[in-house]
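Margin note: ligand = FE2/S2 (inorganic) cluster.
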Amino acid sequence: MIIVGAGQGGLQVAESLRAEGYDGPITLIGEEASAPYHRPPLSKAILAGTMEEAQLAIRGAEFFERQRIALLTGTRVAAIDRSARQVSLEDGRRLDYRGLALATGARVRRLPITGDGLDGVLGLRSLDDARRIRAALDRAARVVVIGGGYIGLEVAAAARKRGLEVTILEAAERLLARSATPFLAGFYADLHRGQGVTVELGAKVVGLDGQGGRVTAVRTADGRSHPADLVVVGVGIVPDTALAEGCGLACDGGVLVDDCGRTDDPAIVAVGDCTARRTGTGTLLRLESVQNAVEQGKSAAAALLGRERPFTAAPWFWSDQYDVKLQIVGLSADHDRMVLRGSLEDRRFSAFHFREGALVAIDSVNRPADHMVGRKLLDRKAALTPDQAADETFPLASLTR
Amino acid sequence: MAKVTFIEHDGLEQVVDIPTGWTLMQGAVQSGVAGIEGECGGSCACATCHCYVDEAVVDTLPPPSETEEEMLGCTASERRSNSRLSCQIRVSDALDGIVVRLPEAQS
Ligand SMILES: Cc1cc2nc3c(=O)[nH]c(=O)nc-3n(C[C@H](O)[C@H](O)[C@H](O)COP(=O)(O)OP(=O)(O)OC[C@H]3O[C@@H](n4cnc5c(N)ncnc54)[C@H](O)[C@@H]3O)c2cc1C
Ligand code: FES
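Resulting structure:
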């Protein structure tokens, strides 16, 4: 078995193959120098300086030995030959496979504007990126974050906690436009402003200015210039489908997979950020989260062994900013009713989302118990009513038994 | 550095050296102790790192934060008086030699 991409999803495939009883050779190939590591702390504890790099590793070296997982780091897979069932590495070597998993993740989206290549303009996806941003934060005074998605907001929070001057420039009329409700977006705009961050909405970046090759300012379409000695670009990611497309696998904004991680080649599965999932209901679902990588990894490993283990659990995600813990479960995009439980003023509340009377998602802010119970409610399709959700005295857990 | 003994639900014992300042979860997961998942990587967001700390030791630890307390109310296996989330316990010399038992299920 060969797995391309040694991140959260690729590692999970390798581990789950063993857990499912597969005893043959497993090779996990990753182009980064490090063994698989946790990415979420990169924009949180690593930038804040409260976590050492060594603590990021998901598994230690002895683990790979014990599980007989051959880990090739610093190794890039260049192409896949489906008829010969071989992958070729960048150094020319060719490796045979019986089953192949693609877990190539995603790359940061670049800004199509002048000045993107200036020093001090950085994106955040990998440990190397985080090292560069952390070093830049040590010297910076004025930080501009382009993009008000989760990564941008977390970087802004980390920079602000260091006492730097921080501006967020978001092109849309609200934060988190792709991934959260307007209500939650408003909450985060208030939170950041309350911490002294300048949040500019509808701010379309048109160019970056520099001096001696280093960035000095960000220009927006309204003619304003926002001075900066560090610019972090967090405008989303592009699924890395190059290998899949190169060998003719169907892709549509991600390698197309079913609920079991199967591509249209029975010998190849794909997991994590590089995928787009055709769900049972026929919609195309793109998720960028640890849970998605882990659960798809479990499903895909089973599929490689000819077993059916679909990933159908409600998607969940978290984000930490300042002292606010956000936990989201479900998909709120097409909700038609929202009710609140808890207190907005105390920053301890959950927003319950319903569609045609059925619970579809819960956004919990500093209410971890609501989130945990909510995961069960959604997985069991429990019949919670909006009135019960809003009534603090109604025991949510009673519906999970 | 502390030597920590993890005892899985089925009785399997594993002794792990954990550097000072790391969490119990990090030490366990990096060594591949099977009874701890640690899906959220220690952000106190998933409750898949639940463990039972030595009764004698648990009282000497800093108490759980409000968040941990709430998460402990939602563990997959039974919560006991010595239940903790292992990602919230930082290792110090004082923890050298402790025994940590793992629940039957994490999710
Ligand atoms: C800064 C940051 C913060 C995040 N915070 C959260 C959070 O709070 N909560 C949450 O749920 N999710 C969070 N995420 C998202 C989560 O980390 C990802 O969804 C998850 O890591 C995806 O795993 P993956 O295996 O699909 O991809 P990755 O972990 O990106 O792994 C893909 C790997 O494949 C390698 N690769 C690509 N092409 C090749 C090739 N041809 N040959 C060899 N190797 C190759 C890449 O170098 C990379 O190492 C965060 C992500 C980032 C970047
Ligand atoms: S690792 Fe997720 S709560 Fe401890």
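The first helix of chain B runs from residue 24 to 30.
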